[in-house]
Amino acid sequence: MFNFFYFLLLFHLLQAQAQALTSPADVSALKAFKSSIKPSSIPSWSCLASWDFAADPCAVPRRTHFICGVSCSPDATRVTQITLDPVGYSGQLTPLISRLTQLTTLDLSDNYFFGPIPSSISSLRNLQTLTLKSNSFSGSIPDSLTTLKSLESLDLSHNSMSGNLPKNLNSLSSLRRLDLSYNKLTGFLPKLPFNLLELALRGNSLSGYISKSAFDGLNQLEVVELSVNSFSGTLGAWFFLLPSLQQVDLANNSLTGVEISKPAGGNSDLVAVNLGFNKIAGNVPSNFAGYPMLSSLSLRYNRLRGAIPLGYSKKKTLRRLFLDGNFLIGIPPAEFFAGDTAVTGSLGDNCLRGCPGNSELCSPRQKSNAICKQAYGGKLRS
Ligand SMILES: *[C@@H]1O[C@H](CO)[C@@H](O)[C@H](O)[C@H]1NC(C)=O
């Protein structure tokens, strides 16, 4: 008798699970999400094509309906992830996305979404990953986005976002990875989220100084990609002392100077630095040689003068060195051309003497005497 009762109960529970009961707010949000995408951009074999609301979105098993693109909570009541396939869906992101309050991942990468990122996205309190890369989103980054305390990864790269970076960007206290590269962002760097590991803002029109206050307390920052912008001024000595720094790309900006001190206690994880295509004047900074892991250094196409620091040629970790396109003088250290040297790169297009023409390091050839003399006010000895 009892056994039969339990059997019935179990049967009903299982059946309820199979039918599932996705919360009505989530179902209506999914419907709104799908209906703001142009039907003609939904291939018949795609994830979105399988979103047929005759069935419950979270019901398992999913053999015919909601086959992919959406995940639910274990009790099948709430939508927790939307990860679309990159098939060229075109449409807007509906503001009603805000109803999916248990969403932890929204990934619409490599499609043709356009229009603004709705500011109602700030209702997604549990959102950890927001990836809208390689679409056609435009407008400014909504300020409200900075209230998403759970957000760990934000990737809006390769869109047409414009305007300034949100002033309160540093309120994103869980953010580890920020990629806003290849947009049309302007203005200065605000104070950055202090838990960042990776900062990528390549290919925008950001300007002003790379200021210490923006990077204050970023003790975990490992990767900084700010190339192809309009940053100017002198990069202060504090920058390369950020304690976790590994890779830095500041190429193609308008920096005019760089200050570098030796790493604190001789410890640094810095591996790669690219400062090429700026307007950096002065001598080649010899202190780079004091960074124990440094393996790739580019200072190409700047306005550097003087001799190549001897420390560079004695640095065993250095594998790639680009100093071409400056006004360097003197004779390059012989170590660079020793038979077993592993350094590749270029010392070409400078004012060096005795750079062995048979070494790849010496290509392209040096600047003409006339240009070099002019650069040194006629005082260049040759
Ligand atoms: C940097 O600038 C140089 C010179 O203008 C250009 O040839 C190069 O393509 C630029 N690099 C990038 C990544 O835009």
TrEMBL record:
<dbReference type="InterPro" id="IPR032675">
    <property type="entry name" value="LRR_dom_sf"/>
</dbReference>
<dbReference type="Pfam" id="PF23598">
    <property type="entry name" value="LRR_14"/>
</dbReference>
<protein>
    <recommendedName>
        <fullName>Disease resistance R13L4/SHOC-2-like LRR domain-containing protein</fullName>
    </recommendedName>
</protein>
<feature type="signal peptide">
    <location>
        <begin position="1"/>
        <end position="18"/>
    </location>
</feature>
<dbReference type="InterPro" id="IPR053213">
    <property type="entry name" value="RLP29"/>
</dbReference>
<dbReference type="InterPro" id="IPR055414">
    <property type="entry name" value="LRR_R13L4/SHOC2-like"/>
</dbReference>
<keyword id="KW-0433">Leucine-rich repeat</keyword>
<dbReference type="GO" id="GO:0016020">
    <property type="term" value="C:membrane"/>
</dbReference>
<feature type="domain" description="Disease resistance R13L4/SHOC-2-like LRR">
    <location>
        <begin position="92"/>
        <end position="251"/>
    </location>
</feature>
<dbReference type="InterPro" id="IPR001611">
    <property type="entry name" value="Leu-rich_rpt"/>
</dbReference>
<keyword id="KW-0732">Signal</keyword>
<keyword id="KW-0677">Repeat</keyword>
<keyword id="KW-0472">Membrane</keyword>
<dbReference type="InterPro" id="IPR003591">
    <property type="entry name" value="Leu-rich_rpt_typical-subtyp"/>
</dbReference>
